[in-house]
Every structure is written in C-alpha cells, then in structure tokens.
Amino acid sequence: MQRQVRLSPRKRPRQQRGKDTVDSILEATARVLKHAGFDGLTTNAVAAKAGVSIGSLYQYFPNKEALVSALIERHCEEMSAAILAELANVANLPIAQGARAVIELTFSAHAIDPALHRVLTEQVPRIGKLAKLRELDNISHRMVAGMLAARRDELAIRDVELAAFVLVSAIESIVHRSALLYPDKLKDPRLLDEATLLVTRYLGVAEN
Amino acid sequence: MQRQVRLSPRKRPRQQRGKDTVDSILEATARVLKHAGFDGLTTNAVAAKAGVSIGSLYQYFPNKEALVSALIERHCEEMSAAILAELANVANLPIAQGARAVIELTFSAHAIDPALHRVLTEQVPRIGKLAKLRELDNISHRMVAGMLAARRDELAIRDVELAAFVLVSAIESIVHRSALLYPDKLKDPRLLDEATLLVTRYLGVAEN
DNA sequence: CTAGAATGCGAGCGAACGCTCACATTGTCA
DNA sequence: TGACAATGTGAGCGTTCGCTCGCATTCTAG
C-alpha cells in the first residue's frame, strides 16, 4: 500500500557526466516546483526539464520523495552555511548589536531563494525531511540560547531556554511572514529596526 | 492538465438525510486526514469511513479539493468564533491585561482540535483556501492594530501597522510552534507569561 | 396513493504517473 | 584495442485514484 521510501541515492555518480546529470535534475526539480507547485511535480516533468531521460533520474534517485528531500537538504545547507559563516563575527558583539546582527542574518538567509523557500515551506508535505527543518530550528535555538547564557547577568530574563524559544519563534515568523506575504518588505530597514526593538526591549537592553 | 476545481458544493442537501451525509463525510475527512495524512486521503477512503457510497460523496462535493476546503473552512470558523466571542470582553481592558487576554485567546483557539490543526497546517498543500487562512490572519491584524491605535499615546511605538504586524507574527508563531513541537507546552503558564512579557515590554507597558 | 424530487449506490472508466527493464552509448584502464 | 564499468535511453507496465453514470431507494407534496 505505502510506497517504498528510501531517501538515499540509489547510486553515487562516479564520473563527471553523472554529477552533471544529478545537478541538472535537482535544478529542474526546483524549477518545476516553483513553476507548477508540488502538485505539478512529476518525475517525468523533472526529467524532461532537466533534458535527461526518466531512466537516468531513477538511477540516482530511488523515488520522487528522495528528489524533494535532496532539494530540501541542499537548500537548508545553503541557508545554514550563510548563517554559520557570519556567526563567529557576531558572537562577541554587545548584545543590542548582536541581536540586530542575528536578525539581519536571518533576513539575508531567507533571501537566498525566496521562491523556492516559499514553495518548500508552503506546499511540500512534511515528509521525511521534516527532520532537516527541525535541525535548522534546533541549531538556531542552541545558538541563541548560547548567546543569552553568555550574557545572562545583563539580561532581564529568568529562563534562558524559554527566552530562546520565544525569540527564535518570533523572529523566524516575522521574517517568514514578511517573505511570504510581502516579499519586498524584507528590504525595508524599518522592519529590521522594529524586530530588533522587539528583541532588545524584551531582553531589557534597549537604549530607547 | 490541471484538474477542474470548483470549491462550492455541487448541491445543497435539502433533507435531513442529506445533511447527515454531509456531516459524516466531513467528519470522516478529518479522521482520515489525522490518521493517514494528506497522502492517505482518498475520496474512496473517506466515503468508506463515512459509511457512505462514493457516489453520495460526489453529490455534495464536486471534487476532492472541495472536501478539504470545506473542512478548512469549518475549522477556521470554529477558531475565529472562539476568538470573536471573547473579544468584546477584552477590548476595554487596560493594555497589559488586554495583551495577556488576547494571547490567552490565541492559545485556547489553537487547542480546539490540535491534531486536525496540525495536519491542516503541516501537510495540506495551500490550495484555494489559502485565502481563508489569510483572512483569519487579517482579522487578527486589524483587531490588534485597532487595540494599539486606541491606546496609542500610552505605547512606546511609532507605527501602529508595523507594530501590529510584528506582534501578530510573534504570537502566532509562539503558539503555533508550541502546539506543533511541544503540544503539552500549551498548558504551561510560564509560556503564556513569557509571551505576555515579550509583548508588554515591547509596548513599553510592562510593570517589571 | 402516487409522481417526481431528493438521496443513495458502487462497478468500473480513463487518465495520470511512478517506476522498471532491456538495451545503447560513453568513459576508463590495462 | 578490448573488456568492463558507468551512464544514458524511453517505451510502456501496473497501479492508484478521482470521478461518472445508470439505476435503486427513500422522502415529500398534492
């Protein structure tokens, strides 16, 4: 009844040809997803868009789900890479500036491929790779909790974990809803200001 | 290529029999969704679970999508009814208490049918009824903006619309992520306290 | 009572689509 | 250059599933 679901590739490409094929398949997956939505995502369509035969697709991806999983994984890695790369520079800033910097990072991470991000979060059924998304979440949480704990005595909070949860939720959602509802708002500095204000006032480190 | 999508029922039931049928179909839809997820939702399965023939189902729902739409609509209406019913009592409270009351309302609205809510927000592709969800969103936004505008001179904010956006996003997400990630957290009063704190400090009306 | 409307039934049609398989082509290595 | 692996091909199989249609049953109004 339930279709067999393996997420790891059936075969790793060993030659350059194969790698190119895999790349173009993933690229096509993204394009089809953005253009036709998850309902319009068929393996045949992806193969066609990639300029590759359906057989080749199934040489590297055991099933349709694996295709989407790989795409999610790639996208998540790009986003977390963008964040982690800048994180070191942020950790030692004074809190108010650190907060602003982290929020800014979140904004820019969501600007990598908004259309893809949108379709992935809005339409794709939360299949196996839900774990991947949670992981990203968890990384953010641990990171924020770490920053809070390090400066705990300067902050007007009692429970670091709880505060981290509240903050991550709030920021994530502000960025997300901006990206989804009003994509151009992401560039509006007033939004960044306001999100920063929310955080700093909550933490008791606002200057105004 | 794209399947025909009409969302309104093909026919309204005129006798009690028909109304019962429609009810049991919707009920079955919810149960199948919760039990098998969106992928496991087939019209035949729904009809079977409802103890109704597939033909009867298509007498009242023109297609599968309409089925889900009707369910979303019903769920949204229940949630907004729960909120709107209490809203009048809240509007005239002092801000700090009003904030807490509104947040509490959001919490309890999400406790109506968490399993269904989860499957609807996590798995159901945002089909036609996306509008319905946005509408709920919009109602919340207007409501909060109204409350803020009424007490504007007591508040440390500059832009009412922006503040409403930030607050609605933040609260919505805190409640949502609690419900999805840690369902039992919804009953934890410390979370409610913390969310309230976030809001009141941001607004500059916190007592501590 | 009865005609016609409302409702209920379910076998099965048709199309979409995931995926296989037998075979062809291209690359690698001795 | 030959042998074998890696990769590429696409017709089409099998299944699932949305949905129709012709007919049966139940209700309602005159």
Q: How much of the residues of chain A is beta strand, in percent?
A: under 5%
**Protein structure class of chain A:** mainly alpha
Largest sheet of chain A: none
Regions with little confidence, pLDDT below 50 for 5+ residues of chain A: 1-5
Radius of gyration of chain A, whole Å: 20 Å
Helix content of chain A: over 70%
Mean pLDDT of chain A, as a whole number?
A: 90
Biggest interface, which chains?
A: A-B, 31 and 31 residues
Total strands of chain A: 0
Q: What is the H-and-E element order of chain A?
A: HHHHHHHHH
Describe the protein in words.
Two copies of one chain form a homodimer. Chain A has 208 residues and is mainly alpha-helical. Helix content of chain A is 70%, strand content 0%. The first copy, chain A, has nine helices and no strands. Chain A has helices at residues 16-36, 43-50, 54-60, 64-91, 95-109, 114-122, 130-150, 160-181, 189-203. In chain A, helix 1 (16-36) crosses helix 2 (43-50). The longest helix of chain A is centred in the middle third of the chain and has 28 residues, at 64-91. The radius of gyration of chain A is 20 Å and the shape is elongated. The model of chain A is unreliable at 1-5 (pLDDT under 50). The interface between A and B is medium-sized, with 31 and 31 residues. Chain B binds a DNA duplex (30 and 30 nucleotides) through helix 1, helix 2 and helix 3.
In short:
Chain A is mainly alpha-helical and 208 residues long. Chain A has helices at 16-36, 43-50, 54-60, 64-91, 95-109, 114-122, 130-150, 160-181, 189-203. The radius of gyration of chain A is 20 Å and the shape is elongated.
